Amino acid sequence: MKASNAPTTARPSVSRKHVIVLTSSAAVLYVLIEMVSGFSAIVTARVVGSPAVAGLGPAIVFGLAGMTSVPAGWLSDRVGRRPLLSGGFFIGGLGALAAGLSMGTQTVLWLWAAWILTGMGIGILRLLKAAAADLYPPQARTRGIGVVQTGALLGAYLGMAVATGRSPQATMRMLADPWFLVAILWIMGMIGTWGLLRPDPIQMAHAWETDQDVPHRSVLPRTGHRRIGAILLAISVIYGVMVMDMALAGEVLKQMGAGSRTIMIVMAVHFTGMFGPMRWAGGWATRTPRPRMALMGAVAMIAATATMAIVSLTPLTISISLFVVGVGWCIAWMAGLGELAEAVPPRERGTIMGMADFGSDIVAAIITLFGGVTLAHYHLTGLVILGVSAGGIAMGTIAWGWPTRRAKISADPI
């Protein structure tokens, strides 16, 4: 009789300790991301001594972050989330330390080492999404991702506060000090994840799953399958439009004569739209057909982007538009991540999340590059047309390849 009762034994509960560790890790991650966004171009130009190479700093960091995402995700599926996240904190911490040393010593070698290590660390730490999905039962995975990702908002605020307090004309020593502080935070993150993230989130995911929850066949060889490919393409394009709007809005504000503090405030509003609703969007994705939710997010982004060509542009109107762009991205992104997290077993979740990050980085780089050229030649109207067109591609991809029915991707015929 006891054996017959085994299937009804209590399932594990969500570990509050794990949630706190991962949420704090997301905050620490985005402190560094904001530092790179605000300072890497300035630091590269000053250490190398040529403004012509300023763009190499952020290009190396975010390029390597994308290239690292898939192999890091694959490795985390095999050795566990805890070793990879701890290793990512260590690598990124070394990168921040090397960045500080490069400014203090004016050494170019330290600088390139800094950006390489920082990019790898960021690429690995973005796997927090997979670990967050592992912590929650199947019906609440997306909400779990949203809960953990809310930590990114605090990190973005802290990073922007540091960036706002340092002007491009500051001494190299003044620019170096925040990087040493970030290095300490990342080493603390390494210690925290290694010591507190026990049991490993992937072990908890296996405890949650039942035979009905996950596919028995591997999903990854079928990423060319229409539905999975559509999800990856759609969220990558939506991410690319969001990054283009964010990056080039800063240039538009500069052309309007806005100061660095005003630009940072506008970016803070944008990040509030991106990460503020994460928990709510994650919960919504557990109750709403996700393709419909993704379409709603894409429509919000397109409308907000188009508005910038219609209304009189001021820092206030740009802030409102970027806030709505951020909210739209949040809704669509959470819908896509929830669908991908549900599509794969724990042993493939890190890899699929890495693929989403990699695709998003590549598309964002391409769209932002074309957006910059378009802004220079066709001004804001051309930029808006590009953003709306890309958003339309995302909507068409969702409508064509991501049906509203909630059947598991793994059950679809090939």
TrEMBL record:
GO cellular component annotations of the record: plasma membrane
Membrane topology listed for this record: Multi-pass membrane protein
Domain of life: Bacteria
Keyword annotations: Membrane, Transmembrane, Transmembrane helix, Transport
Pfam families per UniProt: MFS_1
Transmembrane annotation, as ranges: 20-43, 55-75, 84-103, 109-128, 140-159, 179-197, 228-250, 262-281, 293-312, 318-337, 358-378, 384-402
Compartment annotation: Cell membrane
MF terms (GO), sorted A to Z: transmembrane transporter activity
Span of domain Major facilitator superfamily (MFS) profile: 19-408
Xref: PANTHER family: MAJOR FACILITATOR SUPERFAMILY PROTEIN (PTHR23534:SF1), MFS PERMEASE (PTHR23534)
Name of this chain's protein: Major facilitator superfamily MFS_1
Organism: Sulfobacillus acidophilus (strain ATCC 700253 / DSM 10332 / NAL)
Lineage, opening ranks: Bacteria, Bacillati, Bacillota, Clostridia, Eubacteriales
